[in-house]
Design a protein that fits this description.
The complex is a heterodimer of chains A (113) and B (172).
Chain A lengths: L7 H7 L3 H27 L3 H17 L5 H14 L6 H23 L1
Helix pairs in contact in A: 2-3, 2-5, 3-4, 4-5
Chain B lengths: L5 E5 L3 H11 L6 E5 L2 H6 L7 E5 L12 H11 L4 E6 L4 H9 L4 E4 L4 H48 L11
Parallel strand pairs in B: 1-2, 1-3, 3-4, 4-5
Classes of the chains: A mainly alpha (113), B alpha/beta (172).
Chain lengths: 113, 172
């Protein structure tokens, strides 16, 4: 299966230091499941501002972990939730984003194993 | 590095804050303090930071949390010489304009180039501090020269009135 994470940025940022790589990846692996659960909960409760806030916080991490297919999606979730635009699309977008993040977390876990 | 001793990083995203702190650790002369909220930052302004890297949004702290612009205004009120650099995940022009309107030195979007840009901003702040310091020095020198010139004129008049110097010097 094709990889969805690209660690080029992180390798450059850490100067290839495996301890630093592990530190940042571990922080993401800790943050991401909670963020996804919170996003789902906000969506279920119709709290679009809350959803926008979590998407906003997760967005840079998605970029730093090189989760390329997740970048436009999290940006769109943040925008649509913040502006209440096409909110009916949000459940499907969040499901797709969740799938991408879970796949990314699998890859990243292997990276630091 | 020249004149920059204390830097604050104020961000409710611990990963972002830690990455910037790690990035700046290559300059051991900086003392970097990290705060997770604007309220904590304001409580510690007595540490006299020269630069504050400040997040624009503090949604994760709580709905009543001060936002980046509130904190920026407060910092500029109490520590006007502190340079504030706004950080945000949004690349919207209005966010940048709003930041600059309230006195931010610069605005950085949180992406792969954010860390390198932060370093450049520090260099720009150092350059500006140098220029301001030189301007202050020139102002003092100009004032000193003015005072010296005035003193010479007064002395000349006094000496002339006392008849100690001639109206027509001998060589004329």
């Amino acid at each position: 299966m094709e990889r969805i994470t690209d660690l080029t940025f992180l390798q450059g940022f850490t100067g290839g230091n495996p301890d630093k790589m592990k530190k940042y990846i571990s922080m993401f692996l800790q943050l991401c499941p909670n963020s996804l659960a919170t996003m789902k909960s906000h969506l279920e409760n119709g709290d679009y501002d809350g959803l926008r806030g979590v998407a906003h916080q997760l967005k840079p991490q998605v970029t730093y972990m090189g989760i390329k297919p997740g970048e436009p999606l999290v940006k769109a979730i943040e925008h649509q939730a913040g502006t209440r635009t096409n909110v009916e699309q949000l459940p499907a977008m969040l499901t797709e984003f969740d799938g991408i993040c879970r796949k990314a977390m699998e890859e990243l876990s292997k990276e630091i194993a | 590095m020249n004149q920059i001793k204390t830097i604050f990083i104020v961000d409710d995203d611990p990963t972002q804050a830690m990455m910037l702190q790690d990035y700046l650790s290559k300059y051991p002369s900086f003392t970097v303090h990290v705060f997770g909220s604007g309220e904590e930052c304001l409580k510690n302004l007595s540490l006299d930071p020269q630069i504050i890297f400040l997040d624009y949004n503090f949604d994760m702290v709580g709905k009543d949390a001060l936002d980046g612009i509130d904190i920026l205004k407060e910092v500029k009120k109490t520590n006007p010489d502190t340079e504030v650099v706004m950080f945000s995940g949004q690349d919207k022009i209005e966010v940048a304009v709003n930041s600059m309107k309230y006195g931010a030195f610069d605005y950085i979007v949180k992406n792969e180039s954010a860390f390198h840009r932060s370093e450049n901003v520090i260099f720009n702040i150092i350059k500006r501090l140098k220029v301001m310091q030189e301007a202050k020095l020139y102002k003092r020198l100009t004032m000193l020269l003015g005072v010296a010139l005035l003193a010479m004129i007064v002395i000349t008049i006094l000496l002339y009135n006392a008849g100690l110097i001639n109206q027509n010097p001998g060589w004329m």
